[in-house]
Design brief:
Length: 872
């Protein structure tokens, strides 16, 4: 077996499969595109689902890739095991309806064992297989594998709900008895016992059935096109081929660990307690790659995952004695390790470091806030005479404030207390279940549509035309290809068409299909790409249509023009975002409709009003400059040399279209655009909002809609001028300011009158002092207009020595408001109000000296007042 670097192993994998006719698919962005079933790209096949379900036919049915992936449903195990990671690389080879079992197994054996390639010792390889899959067993035997190295496993069958499924055969490497101290042997594999001896390095999924949950597996129907889906973990291959004890003692992780050693002054011991080093090395890889791909730390979804990763790594840094931000310093090292295949981390290192450092500093502030919360818990427990910190409180300290449970246990131990660890574990388990539930919200893969997949007739989109005569070459109704239709819904493919199929955020064209006499035969309501890439027209048939006849195809020209205005404005907006916010503000999705445009982009904070105004102004300046919009078809490398920017989530073939708007914007784009920016007319931003952690959205309008938007606003301003009695619209700000000043004066007078009334009323209220257990207290119902008046009474009470405790109750509207104030160390206002509030069907809380509550049972107010003495 050869010793190879991780970069050499990755490259050899790709070279081998390229030699077998596979196209090398670039590693996709970690943030899924148009796939709500995934939180992250979590496998090599995740980006290829459209090929497996038949919705798109690839140019080459043989594909290979090295795909960066993230899985975070079991974060707490990272660092504890030898091979558990959040971010990893999955090497894969895939066949979409081309070769199948025999070739997949034969080539896997060749790649692993041939001296030309990885040169694994054959005697060290073991395979598992699905017991009913005799064909795989026989193929391994034919290749010379000993029967004793083949292990049947009932779980070797891949399926996730309805859709493609099939048996799989896994390949394991035997590291020997040194990793099997109890000499259990092959039972470790057969009985699926967790072990470090047999390392799974490759899984070959034979996707040959269409899974149907309503029938037994034995009744699954065969797929019309069988597929191969494989996955080999790069980190595991590297560990085996570099003779490392764990994945972490490889060239993928050790440079990071060495950097942590330098920062902490501690030494990594492969045989000792090294969990903190492993956690940090793993998590900074995930953070660097995910942030580089546009995800940002936040409070939900992907952002929450990143925040958890960073805070967990930062806590382990503290365990190593690092008490200042340090994770950001590791980003360049991650970039250097991965640069040969993933240059983007190094290219974006400054931005990634900025985000990581900001998050680390924010976490430090959160820890300070957590200490304050911990102090509050301690004070309440001492007041109540408790000695066990609840699992809920310990978990809140951990989850919200980043306190490791060990720190909470230290706080408890200092006082002779304990922590409800079982309760904490239950809260942790519940959170993990929520995390797992949030990963997948739909089915994994759709079923294959054999009818549409079989449509291979060529069709050409006419970019410049808005109508054309064209021959009908394919016609489908009710999922059956037919020669003619008379009425109803149908799907059509023409030899060439001016109708744009929805793609890249631009909606489909609508229009009509006419005969030679101008009679409307069908209405085009949608156009999508067929599996083989042709524009597939969804139509409502009004009169008979026949295959091979020639028809007149006519667009809804007004719809197309308005969509083009919005689409071209999107390019200008993207460029303006780069100019104003920075290069990190890249597209994360878009929609170009006829009435508006929507643009999603990555940014770590809300866009400031002055920035938004500048963006809008910049776009309108470019519209006013009447810049030519030019389109050139070229190859991808030439396009990149021209400075063309590829859009998030788009896949580009050998030939691409470069859309240039003066020297302001150059992008790869297959959509339709106006010929000159002046045709856009006007651009206006309607709103800017956050739609997820690190992702913002701008909704804007152009042309007619932008003009109408300004007209509507002008009407509102005129109405406002009328209501505030301003002579002109321009006088409105001064008039409003004068009214606001008048309102402030009235509020001041009102407050002063309330204070005088409260002072007058308090003269009587504060005289009704009662004593209980040596405590003087006042408990009264008062007649006030709002809860603020209760606080005014309390402020007056604090200025004199009227009593030790004050309890005031008011019926305001249909609600009950309660206030408790205390100047006695023996009475905690927040605790007292928690006892009183339920009497009036309410709840509340507060600090030791002041607390408030709300309730709904006004009839119970006398009961509350009577209960005060007993509670004191």
């Amino acid at each position: 077996m050869k010793y190879m670097t991780s970069a050499e192993i990755r490259q050899m994998w790709l070279d081998f499969w390229a030699s077998k006719g596979h196209a090398i698919e670039p590693s996709a962005n970690l943030v899924p595109v148009n796939d709500p079933t995934l939180l992250w790209i979590n496998s090599g096949v995740a980006t290829l689902k459209k090929y497996f379900d038949g919705s798109v036919i690839p140019e080459n049915p043989r594909i290979t890739n090295a795909q960066k992936s993230i899985r975070t449903n079991d974060i707490e195990n990272v660092g504890k095991t030898a091979r558990h990671h959040t971010m990893f690389e999955m090497l894969g080879n895939f066949s979409i309806g081309d070769y199948f079992r025999d070739e997949a197994i034969t080539w896997a054996w060749e790649l692993l064992t041939s001296p030309e390639w990885f040169a694994f010792p054959k005697e060290k390889l073991y395979m598992t297989y699905y017991p009913a899959d005799k064909d795989s067993y026989n193929r391994w035997i034919e290749l010379g594998v000993e029967p004793s190295h083949l292990v049947p496993i009932e779980d070797n069958f891949w399926e996730i709900g309805a859709g493609p499924s099939g048996p799989d055969t896994e390949i394991f490497f035997d590291r020997g008895e040194d990793f099997d101290p109890e000499k259990i042997g092959l039972r470790l594999l057969a009985e699926d016992i967790e072990n470090d001896r047999y390392i799974e390095i490759w899984n070959i999924v034979l996707s040959q059935f269409n899974a149907d949950p309503s029938v037994p597996r034995s009744e699954y129907k065969e797929l019309p096109h069988k597929n191969i889906d494989t996955g080999a973990g790069l980190e595991r291959l590297v560990a085996v081929m570099q003779g490392a004890k764990t994945n972490f003692e490889t060239d993928l992780f050790m440079p990071i660990i060495k950097e942590v050693e330098a920062l902490s002054g501690r030494t990594y011991d492969p045989d000792g307690d090294n969990m903190s080093f492993k956690v940090i090395a793993d998590h900074i890889r995930s953070l660097a790659f995910a942030i580089g791909d546009g995800a940002l730390p936040g409070n939900e979804g992907r952002g929450y995952v990143l925040r958890r990763l960073l805070r967990r790594a930062a806590r382990h840094g503290q365990k190593l004695g690092i008490h200042e931000p340090f994770m950001y310093r590791l980003v360049p090292t991650v970039g250097q390790i991965m640069e040969s295949y993933y240059p983007e981390v190094s290219e974006k290192a400054d931005f990634i470091q900025k985000i990581v450092k900001n998050e680390e500093e924010s976490f430090a502030r959160t820890l300070t806030a957590g200490q304050a919360y911990a102090d509050e818990i301690v004070a309440e427990m001492e007041q109540a005479g408790q000695t066990v910190i609840s699992g809920q409180a310990a978990f809140k300290l951990y989850d919200t404030y980043g306190f490791p449970v060990e720190l909470t246990e230290e706080i408890a131990e200092e006082r002779g207390w304990t922590v409800d660890k079982d309760g904490f574990d239950q809260e942790m388990k519940a959170q993990q279940e929520r995390a797992r539930a949030s990963v997948v919200k739909g089915t994994s893969m759709g079923g294959q549509n054999e009818t549409l997949q079989a449509l291979t007739v060529p069709s050409r989109f006419l970019y410049e035309a808005q109508e054309a005569d064209s021959r009908l070459v394919a016609l489908v109704q009710e999922n059956v290809e037919v020669d003619a239709v008379e009425a109803g819904e149908a799907y059509l493919i023409f030899e060439e068409t001016p109708f744009y199929a929805e793609m890249g955020g631009q909606v489909a064209d609508h229009g009509q299909i006419l005969d030679a006499n101008g009679q409307v035969l069908a209405t085009v309501v949608d156009v999508q790409k067929a599996p083989n890439g042709q524009p597939l027209h969804k139509v409502e048939v009004l009169a008979p249509l026949a295959k091979e006849d020639v028809y007149r195809l006519v667009l809804d020209k007004d719809r197309r023009r308005r969509v083009m205005q919005n689409h071209t404005a999107t390019h200008l907006l993207h460029a303006a975002l780069h100019q104003v916010l920075g290069k990190h503000a890249t597209q994360a999705g878009s929609l170009n409709e006829q009435d508006f445009l929507r643009f999603d982009f990555t940014h770590f904070e809300a866009v400031k009003p002055e920035e938004l105004a500048q963006i809008e102004a910049d776009v309108n300046i470019k519209i006013n400059e009447a810049l030519a919009v030019q389109t050139v078809e070229t190859d991808i490398d030439t396009a990149k040399d021209m400075g063309a920017m590829a859009l998030f989530g788009e896949k580009y073939g050998k030939a691409v279209r470069v859309v240039s708007i003066g020297d302001y914007s150059v992008e790869l784009c297959g959509g339709t655009h106006v010929g000159n920016t002046s045709e856009i007319g006007l651009f206006r931003i309607l709103k800017e909002e956050g739609i997820g952690s690190g992702t913002r959205r701008i909704v804007a309008v152009t042309g007619r809609e932008a003009y109408n938007s300004y007209r509507e606003e002008a009407k509102l301003l005129q109405e406002l001028a009328r209501q505030v009695k301003a002579p002109q619209v321009g006088d409105v700000p001064a008039k409003v300011e004068a009214l606001q000043e008048q309102a402030r004066q009235l509020q001041k007078e009102n407050r002063e009158l309330k204070e005088k009334a409260a002072a007058a009323a308090s003269g009587q209220i504060f005289q009704d002092v009662v004593e209980a257990k040596g405590l003087r207290y006042i408990a009264k119902q008062v007649d006030v207009a709002d809860a603020g008046a209760l606080r005014t009474f309390a402020d007056t009470w604090k200025q004199g020595d009227y009593s030790d405790v004050l309890v005031l109750v008011a019926a305001i509207g249909d609600k009950v408001n309660v206030l408790v104030a205390s100047r006695s160390k023996e009475v905690h206002a927040g605790n007292l109000i928690k006892e009183l509030a339920p009497i009036v069907a309410g709840r509340g809380g507060g600090k030791p000296d002041m607390a408030m509550a709300g309730g709904s049972d006004q009839a119970a107010i006398p009961n509350l007042l009577q209960a005060v003495a007993g509670l004191l």
